Each structure stands twice: as structure tokens, then as C-alpha cells.
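SAMPLE LOG
Freezer: B-3
Tube label: C17
Construct: single chain, 267 aa
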Amino acid sequence: MPPPDPSFQAAARQAVVQFVRGRRAGRSSRTIHLVSYPRSGNTLTREFLSVLQGRPQYSVYDGDVVGAEAAPLTHVLDGVDVVKSHQFTDDGDPMIYLVRDGRNATLSFLYMSFLFGGHHFSRLDEVFEAVQHLDRSEGSWTDHVARALAESERRHTLFVRYEDLFAAPQAALVRMARFVGADLASETAEECVARQKQSSRYALNPFNGYLYEPHANSIYDVLKRHRDGNYWQHIFDARSRRYFHENGGTELLMRFGYESSADWWLK
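STRUCTURE (predicted):
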């Protein structure tokens, strides 16, 4: 796979730095970067934070803002700005990195890219070519997570699994708050989760795929039917599994507890 365009990476990093500087101007606050490979829980995390902090949650991307719908649930995070990006900065500020099973994350990103018109792959027998196309055009999950691990050697980093955020959000929120030096009560975290679940904002966003009705037995039809589980098991064919393994994914899957055997791709 060809390396990412360095000019694009430099421009992206500069955009992040300029955004953070603008947010800091005239304010006494700490910036925490919320970074992930796309489709790994950034929006869900920011929805929780919008409830806790009672203010919009920003991103380095134009228009990508999660609004607040009520007053703050707590003030323990008042001095913290959490800023979403899929890029890494050179400023050394602390980072919360959200990691998701790379096979599900890749397919979810493939779906989002399809909805944005980035490609036209949709048939199940196209999944191998589709994943290769996504990796070439956007960068692979493996490269992104490997970069996060390298970044963790030089900056304060908390890794949070998407699956844990989804299954036990209260505990994940308490961990994240502790990481930024805040003591978030479990009862407050539980109330935050309860309020977020009452919102339909995420599902009503057309680019999150809940509203789209895919063709029967397409990649995205199977994904939607198995959305709450490991849909990659129903979509990846033998070539896709081999490709993910040979591209370096197995070591990282095992490191983050998604696989216990290096031979998963042979099954």
C-alpha cells in the first residue's frame, strides 16, 4: 500500500494545531485530543461529553459539532476541551484514543464512504476489492492504530475500546474523566448515559446509515442486520481475511483482545 501523501498529512496536522490554538485563546483550559480511526466511537463519546459538560463538542472538521441540549450535568470537566480528530498532532498534548475491532471499523467506514459517494462497492463478492480501495484511498486501520501506539510513547495516552464504551459506558466515562484529572461520580455517569439514550440525533443523521435501505444481501444489508455484533464474520470472505492478516492486522487484534489466536483468519 502506498504511503499517505505527506503534504496532506502536514496540512491536516496544521489544521488541528490552528484549531486548538483558536480554542485556547483567552481561556484557561486543557486540550485533550480525541483520536480514532473513523467509525470507532468518536461521535458517541462526544454525545456523552455534551451531556456532561452542557456545551457543544468540537472537531477539527468543518461543521462536525455535537450540540448540547441542556445545562451541564456536572462541573468537574469545566476546564477541559476535548477535540475530535482522525489525525495526530505534534503538540504532545494528551490523547484519548478510541480503538475498535479493525474488521468492523473498516466495514463501517466503508459504509460511510459509500453513503458519501466515495465509491460504489456494495456486492458481497466485492468486499475484498472494496477494503483494498478504502485502505489505498483513506489509510488502513492497521496503520492508524500502529501510529497511535507510537504516539503513546511520547504523549500521555488513554486507550479506550469502542466495545467497552458501548457495553459499559459508565465505566468508560469514569476512566476518561480520571485520565484528565477529574473525579466523575458513577451516579453522574449513569445519568449521562440514560440521557444520551433518549436522544435520536445519531440515528437520524443520514450518513450514519440507519435511514438508508441497502439492496438485499449487499455488504450494507448484512452489516445492518448484524449491526450489534461482529458483522465482519458475515461479510469478510477468505481473501479479505487473508488480506487483513497479511497487512499487519492480526498482531493488533490480539494486542487489544479481539483475537486469541494468530490463525483466526484461517477459520
